[in-house]
Write a structure and sequence with these properties.
Layout (H helix, E strand, L loop, with lengths): L2 H8 L3 H24 L5 H22 L8 H25 L5 H8 L2 H12 L7 H19 L1 H5 L1 H23 L1 H5 L4 H23 L2 H4 L4 H29 L4 H19 L6 H18 L1 H14 L1
Helix pairs in contact: 2-5, 2-13, 2-14, 3-4, 3-11, 3-13, 4-9, 4-11, 5-9, 5-14, 6-7, 6-9, 7-15, 14-15
């Protein structure tokens, strides 16, 4: 790795930090919008609107930039697989779970995605093996997940417990997609094109299923609040967030995106508590703290930062 690449991955300027904070808010809003939408519509319909409208927005952006969709069968086969792993499976699991658990709790559990990504990468990549530091970080992070799940069955009931398991399964799907998505780079598919293709493939897959089982005209009213939640979920938390994510990935690297995972729950918890009257328990905060510490150990920079402070104070 060159010196320049190292700087790109480890240091961020004002623009990059602004993007990162903005992205954390948009992704955190996902759970808030879901929390409103599931009170009126079925999870299938919510996911359909999310991927369909977001695909339309990104397709317009793609055409405005003069880019085109891939034409090879190999590329579309990969995009359909990614559509399942990175969109449909996790989106459906998270939305369904929010029928039973608070948006803040769902966002905290989903913050475990990088933990599972490290495990998947260890077994399926040659350059992302677990080290001692990463193993310690994983153990601490998974202790946080266990803290949130451990008492759920007895204190909140079985349905809540399995709803949380669904979010964790969604995080595992995101993690697998993150590792599998390397194949997109091998085919040299433009990131924006890949994102658009994934969302289009997602729409194609879920549309006939939603047409059979989701009946929005029966299940919910088209109020301003409900429609705004659907539009916000699709346009802000999916389409715009995808564009910001790709820009941040290009300028700062994948390492810095770990920080987004830690920051997202803050938005969800604050909005859920203040606007949706959701309750966040002490063990949820304790679990999030352990997950954040685990991610900090995995990332390494907070540890180096504290070490540098100690060293300077001793000089």
């Amino acid at each position: 790795m060159s010196k320049e690449d190292s700087i790109i991955r480890l240091e961020m300027g004002v623009a990059e930090w602004s993007l990162l904070l903005g992205l954390s808010v948009l992704w955190g809003l996902t759970y808030f919008f879901n929390g409103i939408a599931v009170t009126a519509y079925s999870p299938l319909f919510v996911v359909l609107v999310r991927v369909g409208l977001a695909a339309l927005v990104l397709l317009c952006a793609l055409l405005l930039l003069g880019k085109s969709l891939p034409i090879s069968i190999a590329a579309w086969r990969l995009l359909f697989i990614m559509a399942l792993l990175n969109n449909l499976v996790p989106f459906s699991l998270v939305v369904s779970s929010q029928t039973y658990i608070a948006s803040g709790v769902a966002s905290i559990l989903n913050a475990s995605t990088p933990l599972f990504a490290m495990v998947v990468a260890h077994f399926y990549t040659a350059d992302e093996k677990l080290t001692i530091n990463r193993t310690v970080g994983l153990l601490v992070g998974f202790a946080g997940v266990g803290t949130m799940l451990g008492l759920s069955m007895s204190q909140e009931g079985g349905v809540s417990f399995f709803a949380k398991i669904a979010v964790v399964c969604g995080a595992i799907s995101f993690a697998i997609a993150g590792v599998f998505g390397r194949k997109i780079q091998e085919l040299k598919i433009d990131p924006l094109t890949a994102a658009t293709g994934q969302l289009m493939a997602s729409t194609i897959i879920i549309f006939p299923i939603a047409a059979l089982f989701a009946r929005p005209w029966v299940e919910g009213e088209l109020s301003i609040e409900n429609v705004s939640a659907l539009v916000g979920l699709a346009v802000l938390s999916t389409a715009v967030a995808y564009i910001m994510y790709l820009k941040l990935l290009a300028s700062s690297g994948a390492v810095n995106l770990l920080i987004v995972t830690i920051l997202c729950p803050a938005t969800s918890v604050i909005l859920g508590y203040s606007l949706l009257e959701e309750v966040i328990l002490l063990r949820h905060i304790s679990g999030m703290s352990l997950i954040a510490i685990g991610l900090a150990i995995l990332d390494g920079r907070p540890i180096r930062f504290l070490r540098d402070i100690v060293v300077r104070s001793l000089i």
